UniProtKB/TrEMBL annotation, chains A, B:
HAMAP family the UniProt entry points to: OMPdecase_type2 (MF_01215)
Gene name linked to the record: pyrF
GO molecular function: orotidine-5'-phosphate decarboxylase activity
Top EC class of this enzyme: lyase
Reaction equations catalysed: orotidine 5'-phosphate + H(+) = UMP + CO2
Protein name (Swiss-Prot/TrEMBL): Orotidine 5'-phosphate decarboxylase
Similarity annotation: Belongs to the OMP decarboxylase family. Type 2 subfamily.
Membrane spanning residue stretches: none
Length: 284, 284
């Protein structure tokens, strides 16, 4: 999917909601455990109930790998189901991968080709040659961690880093996440980059938009993690929207009874309604 | 496996060699493609031919995920084969994972419980609460990226970072990888940490040993990537050895004919012989 197609979907659906499919067998309605593939059955019900209210689904690979081959099968069935039934959905493999070049190429092949995801999340620590193999895929999107929504973001991401390497003086120092954003703009096929920026730190969006004014930002942390949708949009929305707001637990675990899909739709609708108002206020 | 057991294995085998099982179907002997599970057949032959010369095998998950469910099955069969036949081997899932806390717990479950690996590699970017869920597993080992062997290591890892957060002056600045090493020493169950340090930068080992004098270091980059074994040992070996030297392509792709396992053994033997001499020189 191209970025223009994603923007168009947002305008059509009046939503920039992404729903995280982080399926924990301990949290889903227990009657589903009697089915052959409880994870897929859960996802299918959630997707069928919410697909018109969101533009993206984001399975986090950890929740599938934890169940081994069966989990990987559930992931494959889920992405195939979305692609077959709702081809306008922007799919995100939340995998946070990254390795040396030839190895990153294998990950890119796994998520972009074998599983046909539109995008994958990656980690920046190993630098340019660990991310560029992902960026080489046209009309696929590489969503790099910049400023995450967890407490550990303050361990390294917000530390000040020197502006240029090898100097005795630390001139032009800025936080690591800003260095990551700025540096990545010079990488090959940087136009295929998006970034993860946590909603729990809405005040940071102004600074981030100075560095990447147009890039799409995937924003976790609304809902269960406490971030505010209106604050994020106030500081983070670009001229071309440029935001995908993720909610996982707040939607998919709205109920653990037989009404789980109905309740999930209700929670998704609340967010979509809020998003429609925000877009309307901006005449988008 | 405990660290003491690993050290004992190194002394028994006179080897601190780790063999990377990064299996690319385009590079293995083509006659294996006629078998039901070419990746597993390749690994099995390599393992049977080299298990007495090394103390560790390290499949990189990218090379398995690239083949979808079939690849995940090959990974599962490989780890099961090692655990069943060579239980004294220290197994490493080279996965470079890391996510928010409850998600990292799922990855830890995937690699430590479901697949029964002794260890897993993780990325530090998301900080303490993204790594501690791995560290909570006793007698399992979490191998965190510190200074990697690729060119991209110079993008962020070697940049100078302030010593303490929020100050106007950047006092006590040091490279990011050193900040990562030092910070991680204060995490819960830090005794379960090992670190990835690339062999291509042997001169860095002296500095690293000042920060983590006793920790095990997993060292990629010997062989195909150009690192020197003797240099790494000169600067990086601790009193308790503290090194696992990885070679992947240099061993497993020594030949792509029917003699691939024999040739792999020859390459592994060269490294083991060199390691035995180094240990002997140190009276270990």
């Amino acid at each position: 999917m191209t970025t223009a197609e994603l923007v168009n979907q947002i305008k059509v659906k009046k939503s920039f909601l992404c729903i995280g499919l982080d399926v924990d067998l301990n949290k889903i309605p227990q009657y589903l455990l009697a089915t052959e593939d409880p994870i897929f059955e859960f996802n299918k019900a959630i997707i069928d109930a919410t697909h018109d209210l969101c533009v993206s689904y984001k399975p986090n690979t950890a929740f599938y790998e934890a169940y081994g081959i069966k989990g990987w099968q559930s992931l494959e069935k889920t992405i195939q189901y979305i692609n077959a039934n709702y081809p306008d959905i922007f799919t995100i493999a939340d995998a946070k991968r990254g390795d040396i070049g030839n190895t990153s190429s294998m990950y890119a092949k796994a998520f972009f080709e074998d599983l046909s995801f539109d995008s994958v999340t990656v980690a920046p620590y190993m630098g340019k040659d660990s991310v560029e193999p992902f960026l080489a895929f046209e009309n696929k999107h590489t969503i790099m961690l910049a400023l995450t929504s967890n407490q550990g973001a303050f361990d390294f991401q917000t530390k000040n880093v020197e502006g240029s390497q090898g100097e005795g003086e630390l001139s032009g120092a800025k936080e690591l996440y800003k260095t990551v954003l700025e540096t990545s703009k010079g990488w090959n096929n940087a136009h295929n980059l998006m970034y993860v920026v946590g909603a729990t730190k809405a005040e940071y969006f102004t600074e981030i938009r100075k560095i990447v004014p147009d890039s799409f930002l995937l924003v976790p942390g609304v809902g269960a993690q406490g971030g505010s949708l209106s604050e994020v949009c106030k500081y983070g929305m670009s001229e071309n929207i440029g935001l995908l707001i993720n909610s996982s637990r707040g939607i998919i675990y709205a109920s653990n009874g037989e009404d789980f899909a109905v309740k999930a739709r209700e929670e998704a609708l609340k967010l979509q309604t809020e998003m429609e108002a925000i877009l309307s206020n901006k005449s988008i």
